[in-house]
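Supplementary Methods, section 5.1.

A reviewer requested that the exact input to the structure prediction be made available. We therefore reproduce it here, unchanged from the version used in the analyses.
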Amino acid sequence: MKKALAVLALGLSLALAQGKITVWTHFGGPELEWLKAQARAYEKTSGTKVEVVEVPFGDIKQKFILGAPQGQAADLVVSIPHDWLGEMAQAGVLEPMGKYVTQRYLSDLQGVAVEAFTFGGKLFGLPAFAESVALIYNKKYVKEAPKTWDEFLALARQYTTGSTFGFLYNIGDPYFNFGFFKAFGADNVFAKDAKGNLDPARLLLGGEVGEKALAFIKDLRYRYNLVPEGVDYGVADGAFKDGALAMIINGPWALGDYKKAKID
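The structure derived from this sequence is encoded token-by-token as follows.
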């Protein structure tokens, strides 16, 4: 399952009229420098001042929802994951973005990305990029990625010892589990209605597909003894950074920390 991230706005029209835009971002390092460069370029061409403010990723949603009604939120946020959109839109703190873009611009984007930031028939975010999870392995233990489930399970069990783990991941998070459902035939989480909108009343993860996927996830813990009780994102991520874990399911946001930890 891909997670799309986008730019979204609150009261952008008013900010533009007043000649100053405040941007919240969780970016750091090269990404932050890129964003600041874009802000400087926009200032030169538009005459509108752009203030870029760093906000920790985990604080953005709640700070925006609570601050917006008081006039204490940013005009733009770069960026948020699409699964925050519904809550923020229902809180009434987002401005629809459709009037700021052309159909030509939208037609150049992946339809699934535009759909991810559409809520109640309105576009609330401009897709910036998409990311997904994958199997990441430590070459100290695994020389090349396993090509079959049998190879994967054999490696995971081989390196599950008293001092190392073969495979861990955030087993309690549906986002990290969707790949297993996909492997057993799930097309999506929800079906679509006659208008092409996702229908939350029609879940596609049940039936034979769901039974097989959940059985495999259950076996990871109780049959193969690979993901013990108490393992969450922090535990798995920490074990990989410590060099005690052979394989993990995680996303590209974690790679920087793994490189800093000198994991190959």
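The chain is about 40% helix and 25% strand. These observations are discussed further in the main text.
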